[in-house]
Design goal:
Cytochrome p450, 14 helices, binds protoporphyrin IX containing FE, alpha+beta
Length: 387
Amino acid sequence: MFAFDPYSPVVDADPFPDYRTLRDEHPCFWSHEAQMWVLSRYADIVSAGQDWQTYSSAKGNLMTELPGRAGATLGTTDPPRHDRLRGLVQHAFMKRNLETLSGPIRDIGAACAAPLAGRPSFDFIGDFSSKFTVRVLFAALGLPLGNEAEVREKALLMVQSDPTTRAKAPQHIAAYQWMQDYAAGVIAERRANPVNDLISHFAMAEIDGDRLDEREVLLTTTTLIMAGIESLGGFMSMFALNLADHAEARRAVVANPALLPDAVEESLRYNTSAQRFRRCLQRDVELHGQTMRAGDFVCLAYGSGNRDERQYPNPDVYDIARKPRGHLGFGGGVHACLGTAIARLSVKIAFEEFHRVVPDYRRVREHLAWMPSSTFRSPVRLELAAH
Ligand code: HEM
């Protein structure tokens, strides 16, 4: 009998055969192990993302949620509270014009890539993308330099879970507490001495007299650090993996960097890091002959929707000319990623600089160790050999 546990490390090693079985034979599947429904077809995931009245995020959106986050942050509230928070955060984002970040992001990319010159092999994550991501996030949010490695370590722990209990372990919760204390310190500093950075803008964000309160500023900042560091870093490693595995695509983007944005979109579809998010049903739903009950949790398997042949012809082919409209790499509906512009810009610049120093590469190991997070799928290390 077919079984699918979205928390299983075996699934993370290669989720795609199971995704296909789910889509073809069990499009609305009750995972006994995980005690939740799994939606795997593109059209069903898109509908669920739009129907927030039925598929609520207010009980949390991570596959294993952190204490106190449900109902309190952008990703874990429903409209109208969510729209209000999103409006205020977007307002702060707009004030920090993205264009002004291009130069600093390029400098960070060049500085992180330079030490790779002449090295026969290296860990793409430890030696490049982790350093790049954390420095870009620090620059974008306006975090004071000094403890970047510690902030990254805690951000990664926050999105992890214990696959045996399918829950957060004490070290994950402790990391969340640490991040809140850290964010509280930065916010207090910015309130006292505001500058032109995102955190200062959050702290002051106001639309028609409405402001974020203390707890909202704290949890929004904490969420952005986590979302920014994990999502951006995780995706960069998946993009590098896709290019390492597809020599023709790699050579094309190295020869013509103008192709990078299309390659990024195809990687967001083909093999993205943000694989599965969770919703909670607000009413009974009949779908594909199954009855899902109010109060049940539902996993939206974005990584599967992106490989749905009902939406994308030859979905298992990595084709950088595909231009996959409407892919689910950034989610969809009311909770679609808020960081898309900075993510796209950062990945493009990072790989332009990386390819300048390492124009050709291949992966060293066939089997990779994956981070224990049922929401995100990215390798712990990615050793690359420069040709
Ligand atoms: C390539 C990198 C990234 C990927 C693949 C990614 C992916 C996603 C996905 C799939 C969601 C939807 C979650 C859900 O359905 O519940 C999301 C939401 C979100 N992302 Fe990203 N993200 C990336 C980068 C970033 C960055 C750099 C930031 C911030 C600086 C960010 C901030 C957010 C926020 C705040 C939300 C919640 C939006 C809402 O609920 O209204 N993301 N992201």
